[in-house]
Every structure is written in C-alpha cells, then in structure tokens.
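Is it possible to get an amino acid sequence alongside its tokenized fold?
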Amino acid sequence: MKKYILLLLLPFIFSCESENFNNHNPYIPNYGFSVDINTDLPTYNNLKFAGNGVYIGSYGARGIFVFNTGSGYTAFDAACPNQAISSCSTMSKNGINAVCSCDSASYSLYTGQSQGKQYPMKPYRVEANGNLIRVYN
C-alpha cells in the first residue's frame, strides 16, 4: 500500500514550476534583483495592453524588457544572449522584437527566441497582481 501512495505522490514532488526555471546563459551573469512595476504610472501604462513592452535600464546585465503577451507578461534581460558583454551588447526594442546591435539578430519578446541562434534571451520570473507586476531573479 505504501508503494502505491508513493507512486501517486511522485508527479507532485517533481512538478514544481520554480525548480524547472532555467535562465542560464554563459554570456550573461546572474544578478539578483526584484522590481515592482505599477502599470497605473504613465511610464508603464502601455503594459496594460497586449503587444506592448517597456525597457527598464536599472536591472539585470543591460536592463530588462517587460512585455505584455496578451495572456500574461514576459521579462527578459536586454543583453544580447549570443554575445559577450560589450559596448554593443545592449538590445533595443523594435515593436514586438528586441534587436542586438552587435549582430542585428532579432529576438521575439513573446518567447525570447531568435531563428538560428544558440541561446534565447535570458528570462526572468514575472508575477502579476492587478496593476502591479513583479519581475525578479
């Protein structure tokens, strides 16, 4: 009987989402931070609408992008994920993409992916509660 109970509990033990979060990238160092974003403030008001994002330059390796996907929020480091940190490695926002000025690679702010690139954008954790968005690492 004890074996059956253990077998029933195994999926719950190994399904913790926070344990599966991976933001390792050999080019981008890990910085611990937490920022609360109030979407009622004019600077962040456009985050209330799907397909809009903001750049916040004070966190992560080169700042962070926070983006409203329509079904939630994503947050990524603004450092080019396939380049060593340098003078050209801060990406710029271009609509729903982030573009690396070192190699002109374009990354989706929905997924962080770029066609043919080894590393995606470095993701950060996001929690949304009403008009507050918390981004942290």
